[in-house]
């Protein structure tokens, strides 16, 4: 039973990545997707395009340049003052118009508050399939379709979803799930401009104000290079100080499992896992963490994982890089000292 | 004012187990609950009802057992409940689901125009966050996702002002009714059911609509047929091939363990000390 694409859809060609930005800053998930999109486009032998929508000005052009540096061959640029801030109505019309005009076969967006809002509206308008929060994207070469894999039932299983006879095939991906591609400043590409054709009075929703988050002192786990996390095995909130001590020496962020967050030992922003943050640091130290699948899915893309657990059969040892079987309460201080000394010698060496 | 709240009945995921051999979900004995995210939206609707006066209709698409979710909503204070249930809906993805729910809401409108539709931010089973935006699009409602608070509602001007969570901050938005709102989790706490409401919930003559009653003529838009996405495979996550290298030094002194670990690690990952120094700089 060979699959035949509806001939009316054969004109849909190319892979698109929606470049999300806010307040002059591109969301890193856009470039993570660009790296993934590059692989898909190469497999299909088609161009990779970025989609940049926003207020007119040099900033939008800069995002196009960045898109080229991260792998795009071309960019669709839509500039209009009404798109200075994200609002569903103009962005849905803009992206839908672009898709209808230039017909990509695949359209990827970040699974952010903006991306999910926009993707759901655009997919409904285009009457096509949208796969949410994918962790893996591949091309099924047999029928050139996108095979999008996502966790189901709390990460205990994965499922692969295809959108065979609809175009474009749409998918969202959570930030930090894909790795950041290398930037190549020598790459360039062409820009195709398209106008939105809306005026402010067409748009019902108004942005009265934008209150930026006060990031001072707020944990920034998704982009931390080093994370020290503690789990229920730390036993008491006081013991969590040992986690903070090691983190301080390393300049690391502090993470935690869900039970620790629910017990109120640390704030919600520090939860790593399926219902918390996805992280991919260079070094992840896990103390008193069993390694449940819901925790693992948020951190197993870390480069090096050190696990400290008193139970030699703890599941975390199945995927950690290094394991220390023992009491976290005595091993953490020793590790803190060892790192402190190593850093001191590193400073002398410089 | 008329408010419709969409609620989904879901298996309590905390109690879901996967069969180790067949990789299938063992649903048996897993209790069904109202999708936890929907309760934040239901409570927000009930607060608007308390403050401005409203009729609150809860709407659910699902199997006949899903009536329990609707009765629960009535016990919290919803006025009416409609269960859209039909075998023809089986296998619906988010596009087909939003089509069915939008049709049902159009039917509900015939009785009394709807000013606000609430949906949950996402569910804990399908977990896509796509149905809310889909319904809004189909009914041409202003879409307001990730709302953290409703600041003001002016029923004369039909204007609503609210806070919406964006990636790096909060947008203060003003828009006109009718609109669709999805509430952020943790923004309120579901009230307790009162005795009279519990009695009412038990006796409430729940409306059950099949596809015809929900105003659906085009069956190619619902169920498997109306779903562009196809699940092609379900499988267990691959176990990482490599097990951790267990650091086990003779003396078992924590200090020696730590030093052994660092030595091994920095030999294998020579860039790591520099990375750590960089973070510290
Ligand atoms: C829908 C759903 C979503 C979830 N989302 C998340 C999520 O996002 N993030 C998350 O983390 N969890 C999540 N969970 C919970 C998850 O299933 C696990 O329950 C949780 O990760 C376990 O946390 P833990 O490792 O801290 O505790 P436990 O599993 O209790 O493990 C404690 C570990 O500490 C070890 N230990 C005990 N004493 C010591 C000692 N003195 N020294 C060293 N080790 C010691 C024990 O051997 C044990 O392995 C979710 C669950 C569900 C159902
Ligand atoms: C493991 C798994 C993965 C899936 N992946 C995808 C996918 O990637 N793409 C896709 O299109 N479909 C997917 N589906 C199908 C999808 O879950 C169903 O279409 C489902 O009917 C609605 O989607 P949701 O649960 O994700 O709802 P969400 O979009 O997360 O729900 C948002 C809100 O919409 C309302 N709502 C949703 N469903 C109902 C209902 N039946 N009755 C009343 N209100 C409702 C609720 O207020 C809910 O809080 C998946 C299903 C499963 C089980």
From TrEMBL, chain B:
GO terms for molecular function: electron transfer activity. Keywords: Electron transport, Transport. The keyword Cell wall biogenesis/degradation does not apply. This is Electron transfer flavoprotein, beta subunit. The lineage of its organism: Bacteria, Pseudomonadati, Pseudomonadota, Betaproteobacteria, Nitrosomonadales. CDD domains: ETF_beta. Residues 22-218 form the Electron transfer flavoprotein alpha/beta-subunit N-terminal domain. Pfam families: ETF. It comes from the Bacteria. The keyword Transport applies. It comes from Sulfuriferula multivorans.
């Amino acid at each position: 039973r060979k699959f035949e694409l509806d001939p009316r859809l054969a004109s849909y060609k190319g892979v698109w990545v929606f470049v999300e930005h806010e307040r002059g800053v591109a969301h890193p998930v856009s470039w993570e997707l660009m790296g993934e999109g590059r692989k898909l486009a190469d497999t299909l032998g088609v161009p990779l395009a970025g989609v940049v929508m926003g207020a007119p000005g040099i900033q939008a052009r800069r995002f196009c340049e960045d898109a080229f540096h991260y792998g795009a061959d071309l960019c669709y640029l839509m500039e209009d003052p009404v798109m200075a801030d994200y609002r569903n109505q103009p962005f849905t019309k803009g992206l839908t118009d672009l898709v209808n005009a230039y017909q990509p076969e695949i359209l990827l967006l970040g699974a952010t508050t903006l991306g999910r809002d926009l993707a759901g509206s655009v997919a409904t308008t285009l009457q096509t399939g949208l796969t949410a929060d994918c962790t893996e994207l591949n091309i099924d070469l047999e029928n050139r379709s996108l095979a999008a894999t996502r966790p189901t039932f709390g990460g205990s299983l994965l499922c692969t979803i295809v959108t065979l006879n609809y175009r474009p095939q749409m998918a969202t991906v959570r930030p930090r799930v894909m790795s950041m591609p290398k930037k190549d400043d020598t790459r360039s590409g062409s820009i195709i401009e398209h106008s939105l054709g809306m005026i402010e009075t067409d748009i019902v929703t108004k942005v009265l104000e934008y209150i930026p988050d006060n990031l001072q002192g707020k944990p920034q786990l998704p982009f931390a290079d080093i994370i020290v996390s503690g789990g229920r095995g730390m036993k008491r909130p006081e013991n969590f100080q040992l986690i903070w001590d090691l983190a301080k020496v390393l300049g690391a962020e502090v993470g935690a499992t869900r039970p620790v967050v629910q017990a109120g030992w640390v704030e919600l922003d520090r939860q790593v896992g399926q219902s918390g943050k996805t992280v991919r640091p260079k070094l992840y130290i896990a103390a008193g963490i069993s390694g449940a699948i819901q925790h693992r899915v948020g951190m197993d893309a870390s480069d090096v994982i050190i696990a400290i657990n008193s139970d030699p059969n703890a599941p975390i040892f199945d995927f950690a890089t290094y394991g220390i079987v023992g009491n976290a309460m005595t091993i953490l201080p020793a590790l803190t000292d060892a790192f402190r000394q190593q850093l001191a010698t590193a400073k002398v060496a410089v | 004012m008329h408010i419709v709240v969409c609620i989904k009945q879901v298996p309590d995921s905390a109690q879901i187990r996967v069969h180790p051999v067949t990789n299938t979900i063992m649903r048996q004995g897993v209790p069904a609950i109202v999708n936890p995210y929907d309760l934040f939206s239901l409570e927000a609707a009930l607060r608007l009802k308390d403050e401005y006066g409203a009729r609150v209709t809860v709407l659910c698409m699902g199997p006949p057992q899903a009536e329990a979710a609707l009765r629960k909503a009535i016990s919290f204070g919803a006025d009416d409940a409609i269960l859209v249930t039909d075998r023809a809906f089986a296998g619906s993805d988010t596009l087909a689901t939003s089509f069915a729910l939008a049709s049902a809401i159009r039917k509900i409108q015939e009785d009394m125009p709807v000013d606000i539709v609430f949906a949950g931010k996402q569910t804990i089973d399908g977990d896509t966050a796509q149905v809310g935006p889909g319904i809004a699009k189909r009914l041409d409602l202003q879409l307001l996702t990730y709302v953290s608070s409703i600041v003001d509602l002016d029923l004369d001007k039909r204007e609503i002002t609210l806070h919406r969570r964006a990636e790096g901050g909060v947008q203060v938005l003003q828009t006109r009714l009718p609109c669709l709102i999805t509430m952020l989790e943790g923004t309120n706490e579901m009230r307790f059911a009162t005795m009279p409401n519990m009695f009412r919930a038990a006796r409430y003559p729940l409306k059950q609509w099949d596809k015809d009653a929900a105003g659906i003529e085009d069956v190619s838009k619902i169920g498997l047929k109306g779903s562009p996405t196809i699940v092609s495979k379900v499988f267990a996550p691959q176990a990482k091939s490599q097990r951790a290298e267990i650091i086990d030094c003779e003396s078992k002194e924590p200090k020696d363990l730590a030093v052994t670990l660092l030595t091994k690690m920095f030999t294998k990952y020579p860039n790591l000390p520099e990375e750590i120094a960089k973070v510290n700089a």
